[in-house]
Amino acid sequence: MAVLDPTALGNPSDNDAVLEAFLEYLLSAGIEPYDHQENAILELFAGKNVILNTPTGSGKSLVAMAMQFRAICLGRRSYYTVPIKALANEKFLSLCRTFGPERVGMITGDATVNPSAPVICCTAEILSNLALREGSRAEVDDVIMDEFHYYSDKERGVAWQVPLLTLPQATFLLMSATLGDTGFFEKELTALNGAPTALVKSEERPVPLEFEYSLTLLEERVEELVNANRAPIYLVHFTQRSCAETAQKLMSRNFCSKEEKARIAELLEDADFKSPYGKEIKKLLRHGLGIHHAGLLPKYRVLVERLAQEGLLKVICGTDTLGVGVNVPIRTVLFTQLFKFGGDRTNTLAVRDFKQICGRAGRRGFDDIGYVVAQAPEYVIENKKAEEKAAAKGGKSKAMKKRPPEKGFVNWDDKTFQKLQESPPERLQSQFRISHGMLLNVLGRENEDGCEALRRLIRQCHETPAGKKALRRRGFELFKALVHGGVLRILPKEERTGPVKVVLQEQLPEDFSMHQTLGLWLLDTLPQLDPEDGNYALQLLSLVESILEDPAAVLKKQVDKAKGELLAELKAEGLEYEERMERLMEVEHPKPGKEFIYATYNEFVLKHPWAKEAGVRPKSVAREMVERWESFEDYVKRYGLERSEGVLLRYLSEVWKVLVQTIPPALKTDELDKAEALLEETVRGVDSSLIDEWEKMRELSLAEQESS
Predict the structure, then answer these.
(1) DSSP codes, 46-103
(2) Of 472, 504, 536, which marks where a domain is finished?
């Protein structure tokens, strides 16, 4: 498609002319909008808020494009929010191709590019923080919130709610395939900005779905689907381990022709498989099988996507995280089970999660039908086969002993599958939370009574009356802590010259976040280390690691290894079983310097109570590698991290970024430079894409700062 350039379309400057220009552009590009797309576009150009609730692959991005084009032509400013940074980068580049790079900007925690552009792409948290800081004064005219079902996310849902409470000057486009009942949001949006809100809903998929419940063993069913021309097939698992196990089982089947295998081999000639898990990945790919999950190195995920797009991978074993930002063509989605572990217990899949995954089956322009298959529990299939076998031998199936499900197994059947298909997605639940960062953003507003703004925010949030009462209590507790810590000062009446009643005693960064809070502690603590100490570089690495998210898969393996070694020692000492178990319960992952880290952080929190929520997390992953001068391969093999290489590499790249971006040059020593070089060499040597992408965005951001 050609660039959507207003100047090439006669610079339309009134609403009707802009609409006409946009429709002419679609016509010239050979695009005929679906009815729901046309309805949504017309509603937006009529000045209404729009809730677009249509299936995956039904062209929601075209409606967003219309809103953005309108913003450019009418001198408005639009924000497009996405759930993850990687998707923001991808969307930013896509929008640059659509509108031209001079009209598009991007703001994430890693980079800021062209922030004064009329079209901004950002994560939901970026817009939320802007809305908290500036409210109705924010230069935000149009808000497009993609994947709006994240509103119900327990950890991050508040970021999807805040703009709906604080931006009365904006028109909204909320988009998702799985919204459930939207009546509440229709009323709330209209109450916020006074504009009518239109629900544009369609159940009609460009590619219809066909559902099937399978009572055939998984390997057999996959082979049948491939033979019936229903590949590519995405096998949905709920653990990375089960992905690998299924892929290994399928190696006994032959899914590709000789010609296809030759083409795969040709495409893999220049591929880099230098990592402990690379040999296994290569073997699977040459067989026409792919694995796709967050534990893989990025280069392997990209390779799987590339081969899948070429139509060479018949089967991909992946996790249920394929919904956002994953570019894999799929004709058939096959659920290996219909339950998942939710953090504290195991439950049947939520309808929303089920439908989000189903939505990936069938590609517009490639498939006439998408297929969704759910496997019956394995014990049910095996019992059925045993009954059939017994019946064939003489009808003695009644006396046959049936295999029971495993203890704690969450059962499902064809009725469960049917119910998931027919039920509407669960109603979106408010996840509003009060935090120190939220208080500081709102109370720090210029020329506005921040206290009243905060009360209004809690009053208007989407929680229940009881929930709002608890939020008010929580807000007051945090407020008192900030005043007591000297971060906020209540102005005496005689000092007030306007509506402001509370002032910040220290200036916070514009894009304040808890990650930055920890960065402030790091900078505050570094001078307490002695550069002359022989362990200075290692001590500094421990501080850096303690501000980063825990790589859970890596830390678990550290604990497992430590327990194994301790158990051998305890057995050799002849300790009783109960005492051994007691000692093993105390084992945790390595935390060098934890006393110093906790003590300095607690001291920092006394001066800066708003930092309390962030919390330091001592650990030793990068430090351990540097201390032992260990290669990536050796570290992976020592802990058995083959299936979590991607987790380890991402973590090491984050440590390296902090060393590059946050540690002042004056505090660096030769030993620290060597450690930094080792980490960079390790990450680049294994998979440079993580660093390359970050450096590219950082260079764009720095160039932007220099030009301004």
Answers:
(1) TT-EEEEE--TTS-HHHHHHHHHHHHHHTT--EEEEESSHHHHHHHHHHHHHHH-GGG
(2) 504
If asked whether residues 272 and 188 sit together in one domain, one would say: no
Q: The tokens of 477 are what?
A: 């507790």
User: pTM of this prediction?
Assistant: 0.84
| Domain boundary pick from 201, 223, 252 | 201
352 and 242 in one domain?
Answer: yes
* pLDDT value, residue 511: 45
For tokens 């991290």, the residue is 641
Could you give the 3-state DSSP secondary structure of residue 251? coil
Same domain, residue pair 157 and 288: no
Q: Are strands 346-348 and 339-341 parallel, antiparallel or unpaired?
A: antiparallel
Instruction: Identify whether 427 is part of a domain.
Output: no
Instruction: Decide if 348 contacts 108 (C-beta within 8 A).
Output: no
> Is the separation of the CB atoms in 119 and 99 below 8 Å?
yes
| DSSP of 445-495 | -TTS-HHHHHHHHHHHSSS-HHHHHHHHHHHHHHHHHHHHTTSEEEPPGGG
Inside any domain, residue 407: no
Q: Are residues 520 and 588 in the same domain?
A: yes
Same domain for 270 and 355, yes or no, is: yes
| Cα–Cα distance, 526 to 697 (Å, whole number) | 27
Nearest to 438 by CA among 519, 517, 501, 493: 517
Q: How many domains does the chain have?
A: 4
- Of residues 328, 352, 347, the one with CA closest to residue 337: 347
**Residue 152 falls inside a structural domain:** yes
Q: Is 504:443 a contact under the CB 8 Å cutoff?
A: yes
The two structure tokens encoding residue 547: 């501000």
pLDDT digits (tens, 9 = 90+) for 109-156: 767 888 999 999 999 999 999 999 999 999 999 999 999 999 999 989
Q: 277: domain range?
A: 209-397+414-422
Per-residue pLDDT tens digits for 88-122: 888 888 899 999 989 999 998 767 888 999 999 99
Q: Tell me if 209 sits within 8 A of 371, measured CB to CB.
A: yes
